[in-house]
Amino acid sequence: MTVDSRIRSVPTDQIAATAAEVDREARFPTESIAALRAAGLLGIGLDETYGGPGGGPTEVVAVVESVAGACASTGMIFTMHVVATQTLVAGTDGPADGVKADVLRAIAAGDHLATLAYSERGSRSHFWAQVSRAIADGDGVIVSADKSWVTSAGHADSYVIASGAPGSDDPTTTELYLIDARAPGIEVLGGFDGLGMRGNASSPVAFRGVSIAPERRIGGAATGFGLMMSATLPWFVLCSAATSVGIAGAAIAAASAHVTGARFEHLGSSLADIPGVRARIAEAKIRHMQARALLYEVAAEVASGGAGAQLGVLALKAAAAEMAIYVTDQAMRACGGAAFSRHLGLERQFRDARAASVMAPTTDVLHDLLGKALTGQDLF
Predict the structure, then answer these.
(1) Spatial separation of the C-alpha atoms in residues 297 and 58, rounded to whole Å
(2) How far apart are CA 173 and CA 222, in angstroms?
(3) Residue 115: Cβ within 10 Å count
């Protein structure tokens, strides 16, 4: 199956069918992930080196946008899987690179779900700074770390984890490791009961004296920060923005359908006949189109290594996150009281849209980093 055919085969109907239930019960969307596996989409972005279908940033964000439009929780799980996968690719030396290459082949086959474990309570939204420190243990290391907001906690097959490099006290001198989720010393500390994206199983995870063999280090010694900046950050920004665009697009579609069908029987007109209602939806669509255009522009820049890639990456997530908040607010207002019930799905999208602005790197952090870049200052 070609990349284009896989993009067209995103099982949005299957994913959407359980979205409300996943949100209401705050449960992991097992059926949706199974549908993505069956559609061959867990390996999107992996080339034939590992048995994948290929696809670059533009193709990947198209899939994420569709998935998130059907269910934001599934979109976030898929986002973190893609980002962990691409980070692993960046730190793997080809198909003979032992366990890392084996995991990539399993991902391409649809048999493996990955996720990231970067953020720590001590460094909060500065995911690139690690409070924990790995301890040398022969050729390998032992890691003890308290990770917060780990998507797919308890459901992923592996964690791409960051920790301070052995022998260093610099929070940005880090290493990345691929940890089997079944390894001894890993404990998921409770479930996730959040405002939005309630099925993404984002929970704190304790890693206690986890022994990591040398072949599970991703990249070279003390290269974690570089991999975070060159692989993790751009892929996360792209996929997070695609999630926001997908949520907003779904909200506009739901609002448009409702105002068209909702009738004032005594007047013989619909909500869509009110100019103010049409204006809200029109402005929402304008903002959605602007952010979506930026998303695909930055995806193309990242794919080509263009000169505008860095600024685009710093601007994109903030732009898309704030757009989704605005769009879902306008959709709620356009639909009136009906939007506050669950049957339209808008109140769920309204809540889901708010996650991206506070997800590391937050909108505030990105504004600061972009300002530094524009004024010639060091980002970190």
Answers:
(1) 9
(2) 6
(3) 27
Domains of the chain: 3-113 (1.10.540.10), 115-221 (2.40.110.10), 225-374 (1.20.140.10)
Got the DSSP string for 176-188? EEEEETTSTTEEE
Give the pair of three-digit tokens for residue 339: 């939007």
- Give the DSSP H or E segment for 154: none
CA 291/CA 312 separation, integer angstroms = 12
DSSP 218-230: ESSTT-HHHHIII
Q: For the chain, give percent helix, strand, coil, nearest 5.
A: 55, 15, 30
How buried is residue 130: exposed, middle or buried, by Cβ count under 10 Å (0-12/13-18/19+)? buried
User: pLDDT confidence of 212, banded at 50, 70, 90?
Assistant: very high
* Two structure tokens written together for 359: 């997800």
pTM above 0.85?
yes
- In angstroms, the Cα distances linking 235 to 167, 315, 380 are 29, 14, 19
pLDDT, tens digit (0-9, with 9 covering 90-100), for 15-51: 999 999 999 999 999 999 999 999 999 999 999 999 9
Q: What is the pLDDT of residues 54-82, one digit of tens each?
A: 999 999 999 999 999 999 999 999 999 99
Determine the 3-state secondary structure of 374 from DSSP: helix
Task: Find out whether 84 and 115 touch, Cβ atoms under 8 Å.
Answer: yes
In one-letter notation, the amino acid at residue 62 is A
* Dihedral (Cα; 55, 56, 59, 65), 10-degree rounding: 130
Question: Residue 137: helix, strand or coil by DSSP?
Answer: strand
Three-class SS state of 63: helix
SS3 116: strand
